Amino acid sequence: MLLLNFFKKKQKKKLILPSELIRQIVLHLKDDKKSLHSCLLVSRDWCRETVILLWRQPFHFLYTHNKINTSFFSRFKNPNNQCLCCSEEKRQYHAINLLKTYLLIKNDKEFVEKGIIKAENERITFNYFEFLCTLDLHELYCAIKDWNQWNKSNSKSDEGSNYSRLTFGSMIRYFFTNMPPKLEKLSLDTKFITYEINNTNFCSFLTEVDEYEDEEGIEYDYYDDYDDDDSYYYCYTWFNNCILEVLTKELQIPKNNQLFDNLTELVLTISENKRRLYFYLSQVCHNIQKLIIGGNFPGRYDDDAVIRQITLESKQLAALIRSQYNLVYLEIFGAPGMNIYEIFKCFDSQSNPLKTLIINNANISISISIILSSLKHLQNLQELRFNKCSCIRLMMYGIGIFNFKDNIYEEGLLLPNLKYLQVNCLDENEVIFKELCLRIAYILIRCSPSLDRSNIRFI
Questions:
Q1: Which top-rank group of organisms is this from (predicted)?
Q2: Quick one: pLDDT at residue 154?
Q3: 271 DSSP 8-state letter
């Protein structure tokens, strides 16, 4: 009898894992949706840790399919790790559930009056805004688009007009009103650059959005900044991008400033002029550690209107960079020479913590001198890449960079921590400029005592 009681007591004792260990297990499964959904059913502790992870970036699984960390069983079903997007109907259904969950947290009067949600709804278990750390505006826009398409196709009206349309403007205002200041990453990556960097596959539905349209009919109020002669280049200003417009306006509201206190990563690869957005971000964001900037700049730079717009944007971007206390990663895509010139000028006035600097598809014809002279201020730099940077051959020969007797480019230049170097330059005909690649690499290798030959890539 005593022995039987002993075993009964043993059976009653349950193994309870500490929250820290559960959190690590759940984090390991961060890209395996099925396993995460199973974790929700284990216990209350497992449920909470899984919910926190799932709602950090809530629309991630709808539109992004990671090639890495797939589940054990999925490797047999999909050995080539191909992107397996869910059906359009299923994706729209999940998008509606996610957005509706957010809307039911506060029962906002605006959405009740429009008939988007009912005045009395079921109780929500968590305040999911508390877990939001990554806000991908492109994914949010696509989720809203899925919401509207689903409701339109399932409307009782034959013409599909008898439904309440959800707009991006109203949704982002709702988010900003209810979000705590925990946002770590803000992204508007229309070029899908971060997807490529992180080796992720994305749903083809994301690429179907060529232009952002808000059903509220936003009125643009920036015409006063441009002369009549600039109308031809309006496409480089604010053309048809409600996301950029709404975000810029929301940043002008003082109570929203605190939302960006903890922002550490910012990704902006939209084509439009981001001058005003840079200005307001530089006023409220000072803790950005990773900054990825890109744009589709006009092909012509011989017009005063275009040059003026690019210069103004470049100065505001430089101001944003200068206002950060701990920027360690900077990556730039598709910038003209004057843009690069302004950016590197801002490095001259401070001891910079930057560790990674990557310049992609930029024109360095008029800025190679300022680039090399400004590098001496980047004593913490560990990784430097020039990827498919363009220039004009005659201009490069004219500035004397190939004069090996003159060491002006090496004077005062020392990069004691540089460990990785990539130099890839093209001429005006998109032909590899071998001489320039070798010359830049030669200058930087001589000034980088920690640079290992195996970590040098050029041409």
A1: Eukaryota
A2: 78
A3: S
Torsion of CA 308, 309, 311, 316, to 10 degrees: 140
- The last residue of one of the domains, among 38, 54, 70, is 54
**How many C-beta neighbours within 10 Å does residue 326 have?**
11
DSSP assignment of 194-251: HHHHTTEEE-GGGGG--SB--TT-PPP--GGGS-GGGGGGGGGTTTTBHHHHHHHHHH
Residues contacting residue 267 through CB under 8 Å, at least 6 positions apart? 185, 186, 187, 188, 189, 193, 194, 292
- Stretch 189-209: mean pLDDT: 60
* Angle ∠(180,184,189) on CA atoms, nearest 5: 120
Phi, psi of 312 (to 5 degrees): -65, -40
Identity (one letter) of the amino acid at 54?
L
E strand or H helix at 421: strand 420-426
What is the C-alpha separation between 57 and 263, in angstroms, rounded?
14
Domain for residue 5, yes or no?
A: no
Query: Any alpha helices (H) in 299-423, and if so which ranges?
Result: 304-322, 337-345, 368-374, 393-398
**317: CB partners within 8 A, 6+ apart:** 274, 278, 293, 339, 342, 343
Enter the tokens of residue 405.
């007797």
The pLDDT score that the predictor gives to residue 102 is: 93
pLDDT at 128 over 50: yes
Q: DSSP letters along 51-95, please?
A: HHHHTTSTTHHHHEEESSS--TTHHHH-TT----PPPHHHHHHHH
> Does 46 reside within a domain?
yes
Give φ, ψ of 71 to 5 degrees. -65, 160
Return the DSSP state at 377.
G
Output the pTM of the full model. 0.83
Residues 189 and 328 in one domain: yes
Q: Identify the helix (H) or strand (E) that includes residue 185.
A: strand 185-188
As for how many domains the chain has, the answer is 2
Q: Is residue 107 part of a domain?
A: no
Q: Which sign does the torsion angle of CA 176, 145, 198, 282 carry?
A: negative
What is the rounded distance in angstroms from the CA atom of residue 306 to the CA atom of residue 298?
8
Could you tell me the pLDDT band of residue 416, with boundaries at 50, 70 and 90? Answer: very high
Q: Which of 146-155, 163-172, 220-229, 408-417 has the lowest mean pLDDT?
A: 220-229
The dihedrals phi and psi of 329, each to the nearest 5 degrees, come to -135, 120
Residue type (1 letter), 88: E
Examine the fold and report which residue of 10, 39, 54 is the final residue of a domain before the chain moves on. Answer: 54
The answer to whether residue 373 sits within a structural domain is yes
CB 172 within 8 A of CB 314: no
> Which pair of structure tokens corresponds to residue 127?
């305040």
| Rounded Cα–Cα distance for residues 182 and 446 (Å) | 44
User: Domain of 50?
Assistant: 22-54
Q: What is the pLDDT of residue 278?
A: 93
